[in-house]
Structures are given as C-alpha cells and as structure tokens.
Design brief:
The chain has 265 residues and is α+β, with helices and mostly antiparallel strands. The protein has helices at 24-40, 207-223, 249-255, and strands spanning 48-55, 60-62, 68-76, 79-80, 92-93, 106-108, 117-124, 127-134, 150-160, 167-168, 177-181, 186-189, 197-206, 231-234, 238-241. Strand 11 and strand 12 form a beta hairpin.
C-alpha cells in the first residue's frame, strides 16, 4: 500500500480522514502534489540541499530555488569564495522575504565570471527559524508551533536559548532530548526540561498552496463519481454543467505567485 511521500503537500488528516483502506486517497494526494510541483517548476517546497553550476558573463546569478536559508559553498573553478564581510572580497546573497511566496534571490560575486563556471551549494525551502517555545512545567505533553505561514511539515531541530542543541529521539525523551509526532507536528519534552524556553526550526507548506491542493483533491474525489460527465439534468427543470480542465482555474490562480521562471542551470 502506498505511504506518504516527503513531497506531499497535505496529509490524510487534512481531508478529515484517519483511514485509507485501499490507499487510493494517499495515491491521489501524492499525484496532485507532484502535479502542483511540476506546474510550479520547482523540485520541492520544504528545505533541502541543491547544487547549481552556472556560466555567465556577469558578476551575479539568480538561484533557481528559494527561499535560500544557507549558502554552503561558492566556488569559481577550484577556488572557494568566502562570504562578503565589511569591505572584504566575497559573495553576497540577497535577503529572503520573511513571508511566502518570496522570490528568487540574487547571488553577487566579487568578480565577473566570463567563461569560468561557478558552483553554488545551498539549502532552500520554506521554513520558520528559531521560533521560541516554552516547555510546560507539566511536561511531557504535546506542544505545538505557532505556524504563522502554513502547517508544520518537517522538523529541522531544537536548541536551548544558549544555542546548545537538543537530541531528537523516537519516544520517551529525557533531559536534553525531544520527540516529534510527524502526523500532527506536536513536540514532546522531558519533565526535567519543563519551564525552559527552546527555539524550534521547522519546514512548512505555505497555507495557500496546501489549500489549493486540498481543493483539487476534493474536486478529483467528486469527479470519480461522475467520470466523463460534462452535464446532467435535474428532473428536467435545470441542468448542471461541469468544467473539466487539466489544471482547475481555482488552483492555477493560487500557484501563480510561486512559479519558478528561473532557467535551469
């Protein structure tokens, strides 16, 4: 039976379902999610690593994936470049927007490339960074993130206010550990850490894209009851017509701000 894909934009629970006996709904979720990503011309929405190799006559390049959260390496030929600091020579990345949809970001280099290629390794995707979270004194119990821009989708780490990282475990966290319910986004901590404030970082799917996916999935589920039907008469008094398109208008409008128009590297 098909299981959830890491690229799914929604979950069964978002459809109000707790069971999927034949796996058909999960397959539909994955299919619609992949179709949306293809329409956006984006490989993923959650944070992941990318490497691009570009050749350009200018001194700046537009990275294909956004929002950029970390630049891991920039190299021209075999020479690695440092980030720009003060008046020193190095690369600089255009700041990311705080809220989605965001926009592609410009990487500025200290020299013109000419015919030389530049290799850029970086992490990009929608995430909330260092969100403060108070661990209840009565822990362990589920504590949920604020989710200002969209539902929690992936855990990217927890640190104390001192910067020391907590270790993720499957269940039963002790001091300095935490667990996560991947179905609900709930965080669990030990009673020893009760009363402490931590900072959580997590990936999310922008709410408007998730809602577009849900609407399209529900539309396809309704279509399964009337496959091929374009209209039907209701007792001879009125006729109901159905618009059948490859990409519904209500989905296309939501996708437009997120489409990538950066040419492939």
């Amino acid at each position: 039976m098909a299981g959830p894909s890491p690229f799914d934009l929604v979950r069964l629970a978002d459809l109000g379902l707790s069971e999927d006996p034949d796996g058909s709904t999960q397959r539909l979720i994955t299919a619609i999610s992949r179709t949306i990503l293809t329409a956006l011309n984006r490989p993923a929405l959650l944070p992941q690593s990318y490497t691009e190799i570009r050749t350009s006559g200018g001194s700046s390049i537009l990275l294909a994936n956004w929002p950029v959260t970390v630049i891991d390496r920039v190299a021209i030929g075999s020479v690695a470049l440092p980030p720009a600091a003060g008046s020193g020579s190095g690369y600089a990345i255009q700041p990311a927007d705080d809220a989605p949809p965001g926009r592609p970001q410009l990487l500025t280099l200290p020299v013109r490339l000419g015919s030389t290629s530049v290799e850029v390794s970086y992490t990009a995707g929608y995430q909330v960074s260092a969100e403060p979270l108070l661990i209840p004194p009565g822990a362990p119990c589920a504590v949920y993130p604020v989710e200002p821009y969209g539902a929690w989708a992936s855990d990217l780490g927890v640190v104390y206010c001192t910067g020391d990282a907590l270790t993720r475990v499957e269940r039963g966290p002790g001091r300095g550990q935490y667990a996560v319910d991947d179905d609900t986004g709930g965080y669990f901590f030990s009673k020893e850490d009760g009363g402490a404030t931590v900072a959580i970082t997590y990936g999310y799917v922008p709410a408007d894209l998730a809602n577009a996916a849900l609407d399209w999935i529900r539309d396809r589920m309704a279509y399964a009851e009337r496959v091929g039907m374009q209209s039907k008469s209701l007792g001879g008094q009125e006729t109901v017509s159905y618009r059948i398109t490859a990409l519904p208008d209500f989905v296309s409008a939501a996708l437009q701000p997120y489409r990538s128009v950066v040419p492939p590297c």
